[in-house]
Amino acid sequence: MFNGFVLLCVLAPVAGLGVDPSLLINVFKDFSPGADFKGVSQVQGFHDESRAYLFQGSSRSVRVPEETAQRMLQKLRGKSEFTVAVTLKQELLNSGVILSIHHAEQRFLELESSGQKSEVRLHFQAKGQQTHTEIFPYTLADNQWHKLSVAISASHVTLYVDCNRIYERVVSVPVMDIPEDTSLWIGQRNSAHGLFKGVMQDVQILVMPQGYITQCPDLNRTCPTCNDFHGLVQKIMELQDILAKTSSKLSLAEERMNGLDNCYCERTCSVKGVTYREDQAWTDGCKNCTCSVGWVLSDFLQGIILIIVSLCACFCAAMCLFTGQELVEGDRRAVHHPSGLCLLYECKQLTVDFSVCPKGHDFCAEGNTCMEHSDCLNLEAGASCSCKEGFRPLRSDNAYCEDIDECAEGKHYCRENTMCVNTPGSFMCICHTGYIRIDDYSCTEHDECVSEQHNCDENALCFNTVGGHSCSCKPGYTGNGTICRALCDGLCLNGGSCVSPNTCMCTQGFTGKRCETDIDECSEGFVECDSRATCVNLPGWYHCECRDGYHDNGMFSANGESCEDIDECKAGRSTCANDTVCFNLDGGYDCRCPHGHNCTGDCIHDNKVKHNGQIWVLDNDRCSVCSCQMGQVMCRRMVCDCENPTVDLFCCPECDPRLSSQCLHQNGLLTYASGDTWTENCQQCQCLQGEVDCWPLSCPPADCDFTLVPEGECCAHCVSDPCQAHSVRNDITKTCEDEHGITRFSGSSWLKHGTECTLCQCKNGHICCSVDPMCL
């Protein structure tokens, strides 16, 4: 029981270890990379129940066909809970990619094993299209069979090797928004890099976090996954949004209800199914009626009889007959007499009286039948209708008029290089594309190049054409003319950009014509570290690292001031033999012989006694040599003498002269000798005996809540403005209150009330809102 909920764990998808096919991507079942692929052959596997393949050689291209890949990847799209499982035997010291799902430079999911660094690396796409890399120190490349599973459940990742849980970590939530034309590669990243060498069997992706139990049935899931928890949190956030929207609607309804007190309710009259408003008049037979304060009054010649009918008042008026028309009291009609006089007839007391029309009489004001697009004209004998300019009559009395389409009927004055467009009562002459207006009816050719009204790139040439222009990139640039990029021989390395022909602009920390040279900030005096720290140069960067005998106190100061002494004696990190006494020193320790004792000066290393003066090679690192000197163990890397014919090429790859040990840069234009290192896409790469291995650049710790990776750089920097931060170390105790008073947890996001494109996010008590331009 937890907070009122009962958590029940059911392994429905893995009933009897049979996996629902809709949740399983079995790569070697749907795709057979046998004889059709160079460098791949079917061999005996760890077991005989499925096919196994040997991957070898340095020239192969094992890419799953597009149709098959899309069918596989459709099961993974949009998921944040899955397991990658494989049974493998990797060659000793090989570094290669087991499986890679990528689109151009975006790695959505990639599993890699480095024998040179003894690491398992998981690369995946996180929020904001950022590639996240999680490194697990472990040696798979030992020419032995291993069962490997990497289980991901939202922000939780677990590494299993041979049915043992090796690592369990919290990471960024993966985003599997996989495009349609994404590639799926097996045993390599692409046709040139990350070549896995060895045997693979049962390469699977299971869309469930507990997929590892297909390899290890004895392991069983007994607790909810992190994805279950994230789903619950998401539901809570959705309920918060519903509550916010409902609160908004209730507030609006309350405002409207409060406004009802100020409403004016108008009285109306209903007569014969027709509703009339207050003071509205109408004619009913012999009566003129008016709606008045909700009473009906009928006035006949005999008197006034009060009748209450639908709260309406009617008053009968006297009527006259004139040329077959019924006129009520006060109605007037103007008639043009054959003699030329204008006679004005008026209904008065049941009789028609007439007089001569007064000069300038406004007949239009008395009412006319002229409709839209028709004007009323006052004549001597009465009113007349006349169609407005650009319209023609539909009836003989000109009361109704229609638009004349001057363009269709050829009644316009548009000249060459224009297009006639009809408008109500008129027309317009629109210039053709590439022409400018002379007057209302004609246009002439426009030289966009001379007037600089073109869309050519600043590094392109503009050529005027009839009705337009064309663009062509200048020599040394490439592109379509509207966008031109400079060409640099061999391309720019280490994140540098080509700003002009054969000229690279380097990112911070690099220099050289192609930005190929790392600036050693330590040796060139750019950095001054604390005396307890030493400057460590990194590709494009540096940091002050605590010297041996010191460790950081957790403040992570940039210059090493936060380094403090380690008490090796108390921490049990000394190598003093049992016949000596450990005495702590600043930055080290001393093994002192008690007074009156005859001490040997021996050392204790890896729980083994090493005699004073003894020299040995480490068991787990054949390139490091150690010695025991008066109770203290001193270790150093082996000195490489390339002139020595017996030099160990594994420890001294720079001494390997063989062409087969050279490596090709990712751009395919540069070669490196064994032992060379370089930086590519924020990764440190090294060539070792013909194989390229890359791993994320080491960055100094950024011990702060808000961090930002500046453009062109690889390492995060601390920032004070939370709204500028790319990453936030969320503190759930620091909440935000939105515009409806709803409490939001740090890390949650919502659409701002009244908008569709403004997204707000809570960042440790700070609300940051931004408009999505793609939404507008």
TrEMBL record:
* Transmembrane annotation, as ranges: none
What are the alphabetically sorted keywords of the record? Calcium, Disulfide bond, EGF-like domain, Glycoprotein, Repeat, Signal
- What organism does this protein naturally occur in? Pygocentrus nattereri
One GO term describing the cellular component: extracellular space
The signal peptide here is: 1-16
Q: Which residues form the EGF-like domain?
A: 360-397, 403-444, 445-485, 486-516, 518-564, 565-600
Instruction: Tell me which CDD domains the record gives.
Output: EGF_CA (cd00054), LamG (cd00110)
| Ranges where the VWFC domain occurs | 601-656, 661-719
Q: Which InterPro entries match?
A: ConA-like_dom_sf, EGF, EGF-like_Ca-bd_dom, EGF-type_Asp/Asn_hydroxyl_site, EGF_Ca-bd_CS, Growth_fac_rcpt_cys_sf, Laminin_G, NELL2-like_EGF
Q: Name one GO molecular function term.
A: heparin binding
Domain annotation Laminin G: ranges: 51-223
Write the protein's name: Neural EGFL like 2
PANTHER family with a match to the protein in the record:
NEL HOMOLOG, PROTEIN KINASE C-BINDING PROTEIN NELL2
Q: Which domain of life is it from?
A: Eukaryota
Cysteine pairs forming cystine bridges in this chain are C488-C498, C506-C515
